[in-house]
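Q: I'm building a small set of examples for a reading group on sequence design. Run inverse folding on the following structure and report the sequence directly after it, with nothing in between.
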């Protein structure tokens, strides 16, 4: 139902109208505050740009003006020769008499190289490697996707 006259509004509508009017005034006040903030940020931005230009000009000045005069530089110091050995004995590396075990992997069985499903334990041909279309590696020379493994028995993806 449409009311043409604002005076004939029911009390519910008057409450809603006053609430909406308050919200509108609050939004306008907030808008003014934000506009002031925008102006302050623009001023700060302009100051920072001026500083950047100033620093770039200082950087682009000839190197002669920035470097100290050569007359003020200290003379080069004498080169210090390495200490000479008083003993004529040559230091040698001493190898221990113990036999050092070679580092090996804890288990070198063939089964460790096989793929295994972490959920059901299926191995070998039950595990398929498929493209993971959610992880793109490269566009050039063609699209290359990362690989993910899928168990054909339980359909677990890992």
């Amino acid at each position: 139902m449409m009311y043409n006259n604002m005076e004939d509004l029911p009390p519910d509508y008057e409450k809603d109208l006053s609430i909406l009017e308050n919200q509108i005034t609050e939004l306008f006040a907030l808008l003014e505050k934000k506009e002031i903030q925008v102006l302050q940020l623009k001023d700060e931005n302009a100051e920072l740009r001026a500083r950047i230009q100033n620093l770039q000009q200082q950087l682009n000045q000839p190197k002669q003006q920035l470097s100290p005069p050569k007359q003020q530089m200290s003379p080069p110091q004498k080169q210090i020769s390495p200490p000479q050995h008083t003993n004529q004995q040559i230091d040698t590396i001493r190898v221990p008499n113990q036999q050092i075990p070679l580092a090996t992997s804890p288990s070198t069985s063939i089964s460790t190289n096989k793929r295994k499903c972490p959920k059901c334990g299926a191995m070998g041909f039950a595990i398929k490697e498929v493209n993971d279309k959610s992880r793109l590696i490269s566009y050039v020379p063609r699209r290359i996707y990362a690989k993910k493994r899928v168990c054909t028995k339980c359909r677990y993806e890992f």
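The two ends are 61 Å apart (CA to CA).
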